[in-house]
Each structure stands twice: as structure tokens, then as C-alpha cells.
Amino acid sequence: MPKLLQYRAGSVIYFRGDLTEKIFLLQNGSIKLTYVNIETGQDTGELLSKGEFFGVKSALGHYPREETAVVVQNSMVMAFSIPEFEQLAMKNSQLIIKMLKVFSNQMRRTHKQVASLMNDAESQNKNPEEGLYQLGKFYFKKKKYAYARHVYSKYLAYYSKGIYADAVQTDLNAVVSFIARYGDGLSEKNTTGEISDESAVQIDGEGTAGTTGGKQGEKQSEKPMTDGVLENANLYGEAIRLIPQKNYIRACQLLKKLVDGDHPEFASKSSFEIGRCLFLMGKYTECIRYYTQMIAKYPKHDSLGETLFFMGQSYEKTDNKTQAVGFYKKSLAVINNKDDDIYINAARALKKLGS
Questions:
Q1: pLDDT averaged over every residue in the chain
Q2: Which of 38, 50, 65, 84 could make an S-S bridge to 80, C-beta 3.0–4.6 Å?
Q3: How far is it, in rounded angstroms, from Cα 87 to Cα 71?
Q4: Would the pLDDT of 17 be above 70?
């Protein structure tokens, strides 16, 4: 059954880059979606109206969220699983037509922005080789990995010995790696971002509401919406954008500010990202130590399964096969979803180690 969730002003329903399969319907209140405008590179905000669905494309497409959903005023939101949403859509042809109109408008807006970018490049008299290289870099920086792969591949097809060929090949390898692990979305990050049942209100078959247990709104912020919340969201987004650029030190500096801040949701997610940066820098012992402390602080962290996987990877990198096997198995037990990318990678790692 769909769940009716209550959110307080200032809380975040999901972050840009989260990989979840929930679809939401705004019942009442006010929610703002913030996303990156590919033409300007700046964050753009869009307020939702009562009765609007959000999170549909990324959920149905199984790729990371393209936007951050911030609660501006206390809100009631209905959360659907994909099968629940599909069942609703099958019974309501008007809903399908409405969705098609929305997606059509979004695609038209995106194509217009891309055309504007291309025209801008031409107006600056960039030669085709440089223009192709810069466009690929733009998409890579904005984590439009599928677009970046396409543009970089075209560059190498046309300019296999061009002045940017080596740089393009390096970036293309990174893009392919990100797509293999995180999909074609806007972010390399793969977190659950799902809402705990403890903070949900279950709608039963008769349409009446009853609490599912736990403290209502336990995961949501008590603070009213302030500029500080949006600043934290922007700071977090900037840190995440630095990671695929391999600017790990600067990313960690920004994430550390959020860890030391007063917003528990940002602190929790930022802690995970710092550990991942340590792993990507090859600091495997430090990664293990940091994640051990993080799990002690957040024993029910949203990314616990992925954290355990990175710890297994770190132990394997330091030739501690026994510990690696143990953490891979823990990761599988926590995730318990054979279709999850981390589950697949952990199972593959265990097989490689002969366990």
C-alpha cells in the first residue's frame, strides 16, 4: 500500500544523486525541487503544486535523482513503489496523459538549453575539435555521463590523434566506470535516500491512517526552512561534483563542514562521502578506520550496505582477505536485494576470493 508521509519544513525528501525507486505525490504543503540548469550551470528551483507527482523519471528509469526535493512548508506526501504507481497509472489514463505532457515539456526545455550551448560555442568561434572537447567536459562536470560518453566517443572517432585525445581518453575511461557503477544519471553517488517506516503513516485498505510505530518525523529536521538549509544543499552538491573530477581533498573539506554542522541528514550523508573519498585516494587503512567510527555513530546509516562493501574492498586492497570476505558477506546481508548494484559487486568480489 502507498504510504502517507509527513515532513516538517526544512527537511529533505531526497538529494540529487540518490538512487531510490520511490515516486511521490504532494498532498498538501510546499516542496521545492532544485536542479542544475545545463545551460547556466546554476541551481534552479521549482515549486510543486498540490497534486503533482515528483521523482517519477528517475524511479522508472532506475537512475539517480536529478534534483533535490526540499520541504519548504510542512507537507503531506504520498509515497508509491514502482508497482503501486504502475497499478495506479493502469487504472487512470488521464494520469498517463498528464505525465506525457510534463515529460514532453521537460525534454523540449532540455533540447532548447543544449541548442543554446551549441550556439554559444559557435558564437565564440571555437574550432569544432575544441568545441567537442569542451562540450564533453561540460557534460562530465555536470554528471550527464551518458551525454559525456557520447560526445567523447565522437571526439575520438573524428580526432583520434587530436590535441585533446589523451585527456578525452582518460575522461572517457572514468565516464564508463561511473556509468557501469552508478548508471547514466547526474551523479556518481549511489545512496538509498529512502524514508524509514518509523517516520511513515500507513494507509490501510479502508483509507484510514495509522502510525507504523516509532517516533513521528524522527528522521526529519525540526528546524524551519532557512537559507542555511539551501546553503547546506548547495555545499553538499558542490562537494559531490568535485569527486568525479578527482578533487578529493577539496571535496573532503566541504563535506567536513557539513559533518560538523547542525543538520543531521547532511552530516550523515557527508560522512559516507568522506569515507568514499579516502577509498578513492587509495587511503585504505584510513577508510576502514573512518567508516568504523561512522558506523558506531550511525548504526542504521542509509548507505550501510555500501559502507560495508567499501570496507571489504579496503581490506582486500590491503591483502586482508579474511576480513574482506567477512565485510562482503555483511554487505550482502544488509542490502538483501540481488538486483542492487552493490549486492552484485559484493557477490562478484566474494566469488573472486573463492568464497
A1: 75
A2: 84
A3: 27
A4: yes
